[in-house]
Design goal:
Structural class: mainly beta
CATH class of the largest domain: Mainly Beta
Distance between the termini: 167 Å
Radius of gyration: 59 Å
CATH architecture of the largest domain: Sandwich
CATH topology of the largest domain: Immunoglobulin-like
Strand content: 25-35%
CATH superfamily of the largest domain: Immunoglobulins
Helix content: under 10%
Order of helices and strands: HEEEEEEEEEE
Number of helices: 1
Number of domains: 2
Length: 225
Amino acid sequence: MAGTRGTARRGKSRARAWWTPVLATTATGLVGLAFLPDLPGGDAARTVDAAAVAPATPATGFSTSGGTGSIVVPAPAVAAPPSMVVPAPEVVRQAVVPPYVPVGKVPPLSPPPARCGGYATPRRLTPTVTPGAGSATVTFPADPSTDVRGYRVQAVSQHLVSGEQPPHVVGTAAQVTGCVEVTVTLSGLTPGDPYVFWVEEQQVDDAQGLTQFVQVGSSEAIVVG
């Protein structure tokens, strides 16, 4: 019975996989620890080849040439300084417009007479005033705009008196068709007094239903005969 039991134990030992640590030394001086399974045949079959268990080649960046077990870590590469590109402004070349008049000659600066409708919005015009005996005739171009319904002319005396000033002398005219001249005659003026004549347009705002007088021109001070 004892012999049978010992045989069974040895069978189990051979069937079980055992890993036996083996200390191996490579040619470069590194010490490695390898684990090898039990080979059939017991301790007599445990022959280890040092070259077979030699460690793999060291990773890139490490060296063992400095001596037994030494590790050399290379210095990090120096980063290049950042470069900055400053854009240069683009130069736009344009032709220089020559003057329209010869050098030394003063160009005419007075605008031509205003055509029908004037130069601006609201337009600006200079009426023609013909003085008479205690009266004056004012002539100006009509405005054919659809919102203009009529005209009003006021004679404003430039002779100041003490107290309240006399009321303005007012004359009106209806709207005409086309770009024609409008004539308004004012009477009851004081002979020998200077007057400034205002020209106003009666304009209607259909959206708001409002009627207003907008001044579109005035004259210089003119003495009535």
